[in-house]
Specification:
Layout: H1 2-19, H2 25-30, H3 37-47, E1 55-58, H4 61-66, H5 69-78, E2 85-87, H6 95-108, E3 113-118, H7 130-133, H8 136-139, H9 150-171, H10 205-217, H11 220-235, E4 239-244, H12 260-263, E5 268-270, H13 273-276, H14 290-308
Parallel strand pairs: 1-2, 1-3, 3-4, 4-5
Helix pairs in contact: 3-6, 5-14, 6-11
Length: 318
């Protein structure tokens, strides 16, 4: 028993040592690859780009591909509202990465409005890239015990700490060269190949009902982080609104998780029926195409202008 306790104690010390290793921020972001590079681009827009961010869109690829920050900024400027709009959305769901990026945004910029994407449901766990860029405190910032992915993500964090530290040793602490940060983050999807057919993406009613019950049962983690995001933003006197940007099948229906969870926290913006009901505006079952995104920009520019003028858009959910 004493040998087992000694082993476990030694293992705990090793884990703590690895967890607290000081790895520079720049090294963490340089280790990202594939779609995860998007997180690095967002970081550079927030930290390295001197252009301000007055209005920030945060979310998944639904927002990344569907919200044209450059178009919205241009439309607002034409209407006499000069603000810097930034699409800071990334691939894959996970509210912890939303909170992580918003903390950076509030630390380095002075936004007036944050628009947070919501879908038909809250994703049940954390984001797979967070362990590769976060501090230890970020890993435990939320109610991590509600996140079924936390054990795997914490192991990924320890692996990152180890590999990044070895990289620093082998490199001898030399400085890395960062990329020139872009002003805008929208990545439009052009319609190519076969047209999107809504019927092909639909499940039978029984399968849909089972999925929806599962969505409701696993929503606690995401909703908790959303409340934390709103509370943090309001402490900094930053307004928060939500953009309902779900899959095509839910675009004309309220979310599966009760909309009141969001309307109690802030206005909920919706995409117009001219987009939500028209399959030619969609690239696939989850993302708007280039035409849908450009058309949505007109609606969002009007909504943003209203929100910045301390009003409420006319078509929020009540």
């Amino acid at each position: 028993m004493n040998m087992l306790l000694s082993f476990l104690g030694g293992l705990l010390l090793i884990v703590m040592f690895i967890a607290f290793l000081p790895v520079p921020e720049q090294v963490r972001y340089e280790s990202l690859s594939n779609d995860a590079i998007r997180i690095k681009e967002i970081h550079e827009r927030i930290v390295a780009n001197p252009k301000p961010i007055d209005v920030a869109f945060i979310g998944t690829s639904h927002t990344w591909n569907g919200v044209s920050d450059s178009e919205i900024e241009s439309l607002l400027s034409t209407a006499g509202t000069s603000v810097a709009v930034a699409n800071l959305a990334s691939s894959w769901p996970g509210r912890d990465i939303n909170l992580f990026l918003i903390k950076q945004l509030l630390r380095h910029k002075n936004p007036r409005l944050i628009i947070l994407e919501i879908q038909e449901h809250e994703y049940r766990g954390g984001h797979g890239v967070l362990p590769y860029v976060a501090n230890l405190s970020d890993m435990f910032c939320c109610r991590f015990f509600l996140d079924p992915h936390f054990p795997r993500n914490f192991f990924s964090y320890l692996k990152r700490q180890t590999l990044n530290s070895l990289t620093l040793i082998l490199r001898g602490g030399s400085e890395l060269v960062g990329a020139d940060p872009a002003d805008f983050g929208w990545m439009p999807l052009t319609r190519t190949g076969r047209p999107f057919h809504p019927a092909l993406s639909s499940n039978t009613p029984s399968i849909t009902r089972v999925k929806e019950l599962g969505y409701v049962a696993t929503s606690a983690y995401g909703l908790d982080v959303v409340r934390r995001i709103v509370r943090l933003a309001r402490e900094r006197r930053v307004d928060v609104a939500f953009l309902y940007l779900p899959e095509f099948a839910y675009a004309n229906k309220p979310p599966v998780v009760s909309i009141r969870y969001y309307t109690e926290l802030g206005p909920v913006l919706r995409i117009p029926a001219t987009i939500s009901k028209d399959p030619t505006m969609w690239f696939d079952k989850a993302h708007l195409n280039l035409d849908g995104s450009k058309l949505l920009a007109f609606k969002l520019a009007a909504d943003v202008q209203t929100l910045l003028n301390l009003g409420k858009p006319n078509d929020i959910w009540n």
